[in-house]
Design brief:
Layout: E1 8-9, E2 39-40, E3 43-44, H1 48-67, H2 78-84, H3 94-104, H4 121-124, H5 132-144, E4 147-154, H6 158-164, E5 170-174, E6 177-184, E7 189-192, E8 199-202, E9 207-215, E10 229-230, H7 236-247, H8 262-275, H9 281-290, E11 294-295, H10 297-304
Parallel strand pairs: 1-4
Antiparallel strand pairs: 2-3, 4-9, 5-6, 5-9, 6-7, 7-8, 10-11
Helix pairs in contact: 1-2
Length: 307
């Protein structure tokens, strides 16, 4: 149930995703979805990660639409995401299920419900036949036109959980099982489970992830620089840095590879000297110590404004 190397990671006081308070008291109890079970008499779907993530998304969507006085009475198909994320008899990874939601979107429960009667793991995760599969793909993409999903790993201290719960409910892991953390106090983690009783507590959790739901018009750009980038880095984050420099008018970056080498460091250094606040500590460290070999929060904020 761990992270991928590309998963954003939040620390105790901050995070990659812009911090915004959506639930001041960090208590999502009033917005929780209906209780569901991930199993039946015939077997267990082993889809606890999917159920936890979708419970969190349904909670956030209900909260959003309540504030807009828009009715929201439908549920999303856990079976769809469990299948599309290749859930096994041993379960799944938090990041993999979150990324599947981000790519394929959600479909309504009635569009792809659990099997009728008593079902086994094999029946729950059976291949989806055509033309149903294509219809579900299209429905998921329609959902993604209205909603955007971002996710980041969260530190499991009580301080961290309480802080990040002000943004969204959290998917958390206890030994062998993933559930939804809807409230944390200094003593206990309160969670919403797929086994009765559905509301339980635990003194601590092993892992936590924040899966954020954004209305499309408020979505965080996929091109935004959400983490610091440093010398000798390569891959997607450096590609985003290069593209951000170009979109901010630094056309010299068009000739740069997607690796943070000396040439890119020299261009970053020029950008920092021209754009960072000369009275800030970031300017001091950038100009007199890093010399273009680190893109920190101040530079990321400047670049992101023009994306």
């Amino acid at each position: 149930m761990g992270d991928s190397p590309d998963t954003y990671r939040a620390d105790r006081v901050g995070g990659a995703l812009p911090y915004v308070v959506r639930q001041e008291d960090g208590d999502w109890t009033p917005d929780l979805p209906p209780e569901e079970r991930q199993y039946n008499d015939g077997g267990d779907s082993m889809s606890c990660v999917t159920f936890a993530h979708l419970n969190g998304i349904e909670t956030q969507e209900f909260s959003w639409l309540q504030k807009l006085n828009i009715p929201n009475s439908f549920e999303y198909s856990d079976r769809w995401i469990a299948k599309m994320s290749d859930t096994t008899k041993e379960g799944n990874y938090l990041w993999k299920v979150a990324d599947t939601i981000r790519k394929y979107g959600l479909v309504k429960e009635e569009s792809y419900p659990r099997p009728e009667g008593s079902w086994t793991w094999e029946q729950y995760h059976a291949d989806i036949p055509e033309p149903l599969f294509s219809k579900l793909l299209a429905e998921g993409q329609e959902w993604l036109k209205k909603w955007d999903v971002k996710y980041e790993s969260v530190d499991v201290s009580k301080e961290s959980l309480m802080r990040h719960l002000k943004m969204a409910p959290l998917t958390v892991v206890i030994p062998g099982h993933a559930i939804l953390n809807f409230l944390t106090t200094a003593q206990l983690v309160h969670y919403f489970d797929t086994y009765p009783p559905h509301k339980k507590t635990t003194p601590a959790v092993l892992q936590a992830m924040k899966v954020m739901l954004y209305p499309k018009e408020q979505a965080v750009s996929d091109d935004a620089l959400l983490v610091d980038v440093k010398y000798l880095d390569s891959g997607r984050q450096v590609e985003k840095l290069r593209n951000a420099l170009i979109r901010n008018g630094w056309i010299e970056a068009e000739q740069l590879p997607n690796s943070y080498d000396n040439t890119m460091a020299n261009l970053v250094f020029k950008f920092q000297k021209a754009n960072l606040n000369r009275l800030s500590w970031e300017y001091f460290w950038a100009v007199f110590y890093y010399k273009g070999k680190l893109v920190g929060p101040g530079m990321r904020e400047i670049l992101n404004k023009n994306l």
